[in-house]
């Protein structure tokens, strides 16, 4: 066993036009002062990170790592959540998801997909140059409009969707493999990979590609009413990244999991700041330690009630409190006895 690395912070929700949130240096100084030890950096905002430059310039990568190091920080992972989403988009979402891509490809789904694929290729190279072994992303979705089987899905529809999704991702998985980096899909509603069953289907469609891995976020599982602890038991070998995010689910007589199209503040299921929701993080961190999770525990702040700055400050301390320094000896060693085969056979009544 090993002690989980942390606390880390995913900075996507904090980037803005005002200091200290308008530059990597500013955010790094702010995060370090709160007690964070690493940043997870999104790759779509040049105010904090230039993906193309990182993929092609070792010097720039050294500068990024140097900036973090000035404040005692490391880089946990890069994120291509927005670009990964665009690897596969159902036409129903074309207009909404155009906002994730440059204006030059708006209204052109094929060009937008090609742009997203190139972004993932750059992310594989950049991750390698930065010395990373895991990458955070979304899978995209072709089948999501059909997640509820009414009207009845046509035979083979889901199989066809996952075959196409795998076909789009397999070349990218191979590129990440060549760079020595795992692709960690955040299992998330709105993505074709949103739970264990869909992850298994995708892995099978990719011929069990070894780089197809999981970014674990228990909040999405709670809001789907999954057993987020049993999930770790089932899939711990594939979990290579971890978003520490809380949530609460309080169904009413008016709405449940599907939430009745209500805004976040009125939904039965809501994301919350760490400690304000229902996730049993003591059990989550215990299981991660038990299974020798080697990565970072990274705060992702999302809360429709509490300030992000308060959520980050409290979250750093919350994660630090939950990190488990592993034992260097068994607790009952004091009562142990030394024994050889002959002694054990005697205890068993054997000669």
Descriptive report:
The protein is α/β, with parallel strands linked by helices and 351 residues long. It has one domain: Alpha-Beta Barrel (TIM Barrel). Helices cover 40% and strands 14% of the residues. The chain has 13 helices and 10 strands. It has an 8-stranded parallel barrel, surrounded by 5 helices. A two-stranded antiparallel ribbon has the order 8-9. Strand 4, helix 7 and strand 5 form a beta-alpha-beta unit. Helix 6 packs parallel to helix 7, helix 7 packs across helix 8 and helix 10 runs parallel beside helix 11. The two termini are 37 Å apart.
Can you list the strand order of the major beta sheet? 1-2-3-4-5-6-7-10
CA-based gyration radius:
22 Å
What name does CATH use for the topology? TIM Barrel
Secondary-structure element pattern, one letter each: EHEHHEHHHEHEHEHHEEEHEHH
CATH architecture: Alpha-Beta Barrel
Name of the CATH homologous superfamily = Divalent-metal-dependent TIM barrel enzymes
| Large-scale geometry | globular
**Proportion of helical residues:** 25-40%
Please describe the structure with a list of short key phrases separated by commas or semicolons:
351 residues; TIM Barrel; eight-stranded parallel beta barrel
In brief, what are we looking at here?
The chain has 351 residues and is α/β, with parallel strands linked by helices. It has 13 helices and 10 strands. The protein is globular.
């Amino acid at each position: 066993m090993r002690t989980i690395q942390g606390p880390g912070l995913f900075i996507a929700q904090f980037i803005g036009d005002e200091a200290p949130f308008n530059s990597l240096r500013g955010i790094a100084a702010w995060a370090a002062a709160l007690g964070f030890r690493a940043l997870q950096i999104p790759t779509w905002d040049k105010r904090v990170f230039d993906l193309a430059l990182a993929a092609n310039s070792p010097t720039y990568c050294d500068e990024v790592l140097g900036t973090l190091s000035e404040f005692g920080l490391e880089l946990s992972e890069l994120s291509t959540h927005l670009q990964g989403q665009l690897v596969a988009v159902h036409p129903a979402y074309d207009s909404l998801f155009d906002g994730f891509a440059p204006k030059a490809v708006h209204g052109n789904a094929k060009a937008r997909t090609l742009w997203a694929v190139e972004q993932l290729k750059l992310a594989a190279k950049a991750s390698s140059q930065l010395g990373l072994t895991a990458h955070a992303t979304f899978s995209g979705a072709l089948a999501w409009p059909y997640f509820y089987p009414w009207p009845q899905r046509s035979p083979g529809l889901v199989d066809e969707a996952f075959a196409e999704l795998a076909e789009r991702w397999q070349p990218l998985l191979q590129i990440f493999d060549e760079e020595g980096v795992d692709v960690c899909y955040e299992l998330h509603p709105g993505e074709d990979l949103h739970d264990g069953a869909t992850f298994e289907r995708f892995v099978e469609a990719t011929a069990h590609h070894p780089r197809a891995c999981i970014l674990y976020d228990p909040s999405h599982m709670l809001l789907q009413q999954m057993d987020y602890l049993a999930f770790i038991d089932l899939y711990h070998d594939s979990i290579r990244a971890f978003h520490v995010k809380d949530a609460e689910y309080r169904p009413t007589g008016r709405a449940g999991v599907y939430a009745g199209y209500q805004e976040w503040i009125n939904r039965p299921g809501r994301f919350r700041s760490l400690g304000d929701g229902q996730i049993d993080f003591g059990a989550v961190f215990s299981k991660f330690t038990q299974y020798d999770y080697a990565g970072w525990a990274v705060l992702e702040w999302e809360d429709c009630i509490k300030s992000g700055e308060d959520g980050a400050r409290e979250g750093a301390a919350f994660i630090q409190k939950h990190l488990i320094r592993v034992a260097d000896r068994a607790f009952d060693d004091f009562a142990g006895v030394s024994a050889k085969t002959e002694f054990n056979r005697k205890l068993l009544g054997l000669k």
